[in-house]
User: Which sequence fits this backbone?
């Protein structure tokens, strides 16, 4: 009983109000990074669309190779319902994903994909805001550094506020169903 | 199909309304720390094969790669581990690498959102090590998770 009470108290202290975050971990916050066109993009979508935000890298062979196509398919499924969502990838490998290089591989996954990179401080600020751990694992002779990184897909509203998380292990229909529950058709 | 069937275990509880505020319920769960990608995707084998000692090496790789870990309870319910202890990152990465495939008794708080079960683990009360010794049945799953040179009899 005492342990239960202490647990509740400990969680309550570190827990933001429900209006601040839908989860007991405060996830999300401001960032200002560069997209593949060299334009600054913040957590707010310039076109007023909802966003799917994932932290990864364009040539990732691991979870990104599942999560990024999942995001693309969810975007298309929602678009068919009249719901416009922007897929965004914030790089965890700025040495590999530069303004010049990240656009092409992302466009192969979805033409609407926005890639974001930046200097170390700007990226770290985004990682910290979204509670994403990034750890270099080893250097692949062909692909360069392989990184460990958090892999939840974040559903944000147009202002950049977190609506919910999408575990990347969901299939397209499940992820789309969850996202649709938070979004309304435009127009 | 496999993923859809297993998803039932994750979402066995009635789907709450989207946007429902986070309200937790204290919970103690005994179960195995699993690699959710291999468990749900089915790409590496059946659910029985992608747990325990047979899948330990792959679970380490996946956990190190940032794939969210889950807690597979004895009743088959899967809890997505959102946070462990004082770790300030969402689960994934190497924070709980040492617990991959281990059976643990965990105190925490259950959050149900979007039909999914999330758990914030406040304390791993006991680490029972790898109790599911299924490698005699399945071998190493998948075999390539161990480099050839490191396999028994390897080069």
Assistant:
């Amino acid at each position: 009983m005492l342990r239960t009470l202490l647990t509740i108290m400990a969680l309550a202290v570190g827990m933001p109000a429900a209006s601040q975050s839908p989860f007991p971990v405060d996830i999300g916050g401001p960032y200002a990074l560069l997209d593949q066109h060299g334009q600054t993009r913040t957590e707010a979508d310039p076109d007023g669309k909802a966003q799917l935000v994932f932290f990864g890298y364009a040539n990732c062979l691991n979870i990104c190779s599942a999560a990024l196509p999942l995001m693309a398919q969810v975007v298309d499924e929602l678009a068919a319902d009249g719901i416009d969502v922007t897929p965004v990838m914030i790089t965890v490998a700025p040495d590999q994903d530069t303004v010049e290089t990240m656009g092409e591989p992302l466009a192969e996954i979805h033409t609407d994909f926005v890639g974001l990179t930046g200097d170390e401080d700007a990226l770290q600020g985004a990682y910290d805001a979204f509670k994403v751990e990034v750890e270099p694992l080893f250097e692949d002779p062909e692909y360069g550094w392989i990184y460990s990184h958090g892999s939840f897909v974040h559903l944000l509203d147009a202002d950049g506020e977190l609506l919910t998380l999408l575990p990347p292990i969901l299939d397209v229909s499940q992820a789309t169903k969850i996202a649709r529950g938070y979004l309304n058709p435009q127009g | 199909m496999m993923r859809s069937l297993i998803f039932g275990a994750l979402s066995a509880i009635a789907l709450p309304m989207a946007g429902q505020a986070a309200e937790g319920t204290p919970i103690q769960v005994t179960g195995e720390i699993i690699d959710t990608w291999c468990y749900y995707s089915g790409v590496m084998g059946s659910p029985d094969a992608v747990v325990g000692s047979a899948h330990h090496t792959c679970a380490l790789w996946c956990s190190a790669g940032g794939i969210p870990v889950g807690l597979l309870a004895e009743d088959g319910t899967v809890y997505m581990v959102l946070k462990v202890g004082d770790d300030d990152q969402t689960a994934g990465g190497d924070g709980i690498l040492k617990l991959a495939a281990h059976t643990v008794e965990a105190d925490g708080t259950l959050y149900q959102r979007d039909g999914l079960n999330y758990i914030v683990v406040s304390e791993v009360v006991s680490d029972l090590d790898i109790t599911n010794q299924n490698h005699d049945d399945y071998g190493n799953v998948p075999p390539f998770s161990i480099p050839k040179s490191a396999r028994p009899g390897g080069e």
